[in-house]
């Protein structure tokens, strides 16, 4: 009696490539019989040849041993027939009863991304839908504008660019202020000479009066005034030196008014280039801290009353397979708007959350569900198990290892990657959670799906 045993590793749903399989027949008030094969004929399929000596109802056990494997499978009661003719007749009858299932062979399952999961009761969070946008925190972004008119100069070897990381206090560039219409370098040089001479004169006057004060030839008030005059002259000299220095620096040396990053982050907008002339107030740089972001959800007016006290949100962003959940991202509710937007008839609700690996970008659009705080126990399946079949939500239920059934569903709550099933499934059934669309294709041509299956 040839036997074909298919073995799938449940950690990755791939074929068990090695191992020793033993077929054990027991019970029926008959002696126990066992049959062993040491190596699979092809990965995942082992074919021990069983030659039972006694017919009757027996208990069938399959025992697989191998590296990191020791698995017993009690397959229940089987009939051992007295001869090949009786076995063939019984097999034909079983085949007729099994017609109607969708065949999808183990050999096919092992070659694709395929997985099965058991349907179970889960605790789902009640939520309301919302459209949302990813945006920076209020204290997590800054705009830098030109403080005065002038020409931009790089602060280092390269000029700032989009995506460049910056540190708080880092000089991004310098502005060389624009000289007035009646001002030139020669005039600044002359002003410097005048202030230098004025300082020298003020110093001499202060020294002369201090000498006279020692002889009590002048009042102390005159000396104090002279000292103040010297300090003013020194300040004017320093200012003149700074003004002239901004235009006399070597071109390779930073100069002018420094523009510093106000926070750690990255540059998301650069509206400047080296040498460009800017007017006072022109926008230059936009810095954003991407480590923690805001999700601004817009709640429809009709759902505000159902929202209760929001405890979090989960949201999907196009291009990402996984959902994002503020609960698992160290999130918190920041603010709920106090007025309905007259144009969109929505109320804003803001959540703050961590941005792991800085995967999300400012301005991304998201479909969100705001968690109301209520919970419900329900039969649920992973979202990946559900297939849209002509506008109808269906799953594929495993009848046995290589046979499946199409099952229409009526769905309910959605919570992250899980969906409530109100009708169509029972707890304990097993459904395809990866590769369901391939089973759907197999249903369209079942003859091709089962073609070539030989044990």
TrEMBL record:
Domain of life: Bacteria
Native source species: endosymbiont of Lamellibrachia luymesi
Upper taxonomic lineage: Bacteria, Pseudomonadati, Pseudomonadota, Gammaproteobacteria, sulfur-oxidizing symbionts
InterPro entries, A to Z: Beta-barrel_RND_2, CzcB_C, MFP_Cation_Efflux, RND_pump_MFP
Annotated Gene3D superfamilies: 2.40.30.170, 2.40.420.20, Helix hairpin bin
Family: Belongs to the membrane fusion protein (MFP) (TC 8.A.1) family.
Pfam families: Beta-barrel_RND_2, CzcB_C
PANTHER family per UniProt: CATION EFFLUX SYSTEM PROTEIN CUSB (PTHR30097:SF15)
Gene Ontology BP annotations: copper ion export; plasma membrane copper ion transport
Coiled-coil residue spans: 223-250
CzcB-like C-terminal circularly permuted SH3-like domain residues: 379-439
UniProt name for this protein: Efflux RND transporter periplasmic adaptor subunit
CusB-like beta-barrel domain mapped to chain residues: 293-371
Keywords assigned by UniProt, alphabetized: Coiled coil, Transport
The keyword Isomerase is annotated on this UniProt entry: no
One of the record's GO molecular function terms: transmembrane transporter activity
One GO CC term on file: membrane
């Amino acid at each position: 009696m040839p036997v074909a045993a298919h073995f799938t590793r449940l950690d990755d749903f791939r074929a068990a490539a090695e191992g020793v399989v033993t077929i054990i027949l027991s019970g029926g008030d008959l002696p126990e019989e066992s049959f062993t094969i040491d190596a699979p004929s092809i990965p995942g399929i082992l074919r021990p040849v069983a030659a039972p000596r006694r017919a009757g109802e027996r208990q069938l056990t399959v025992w697989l041993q191998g590296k990191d494997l020791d698995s017993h499978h009690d397959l229940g009661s089987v009939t051992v027939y007295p001869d090949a003719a009786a076995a063939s007749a019984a097999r034909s009858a079983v085949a007729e009863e099994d017609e109607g299932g969708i065949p999808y062979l183990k050999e096919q399952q092992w070659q694709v991304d395929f997985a099965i999961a058991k349907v179970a009761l889960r605790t789902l969070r009640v939520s309301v839908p919302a459209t949302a946008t990813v945006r920076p925190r209020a204290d997590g972004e800054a705009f830098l504008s030109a403080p005065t008119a002038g020409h931009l100069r790089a602060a280092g070897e390269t000029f700032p660019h989009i995506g460049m990381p910056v540190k708080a206090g880092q000089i991004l560039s310098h502005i060389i202020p624009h000289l007035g219409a009646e001002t030139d370098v020669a005039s600044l040089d002359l002003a410097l000479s005048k202030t230098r001479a004025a300082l020298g004169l003020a110093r001499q006057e202060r020294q002369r009066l201090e000498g006279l004060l020692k002889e009590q030839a002048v009042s102390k008030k005159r000396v104090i005034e002279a000292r103040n005059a010297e300090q003013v002259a020194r300040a004017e000299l320093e200012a003149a030196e700074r003004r002239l220095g901004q235009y006399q620096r070597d071109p390779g040396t930073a100069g002018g008014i420094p523009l510093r990053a106000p926070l750690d982050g990255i540059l998301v907008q650069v509206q400047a280039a080296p040498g460009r002339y800017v007017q006072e107030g022109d926008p230059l740089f936009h810095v954003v801290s991407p480590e923690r972001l805001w999700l601004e959800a817009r709640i429809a007016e009709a759902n505000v009353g159902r929202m209760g006290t929001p405890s979090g949100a989960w949201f999907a962003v196009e291009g990402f397979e996984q959902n994002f959940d503020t609960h698992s991202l160290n999130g918190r509710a920041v603010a709920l708007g106090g007025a309905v937007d007259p144009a969109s008839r929505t109320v804003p609700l803001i959540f703050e959350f961590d941005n792991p690996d800085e995967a999300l970008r400012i301005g991304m659009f998201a479909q969100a569900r705001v968690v109301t705080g209520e919970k419900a126990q329900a039969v649920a399946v992973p979202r990946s198990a559900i297939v849209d079949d002509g506008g109808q939500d269906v799953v594929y239920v495993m009848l046995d290892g290589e046979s499946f059934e199409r099952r229409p569903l009526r769905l309910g709550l959605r919570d992250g990657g899980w969906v409530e099933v109100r009708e169509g499934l029972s707890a304990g059934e097993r459904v395809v959670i990866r590769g369901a669309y391939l089973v759907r294709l197999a249903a369209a041509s079942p003859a091709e799906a089962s073609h070539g299956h030989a044990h």
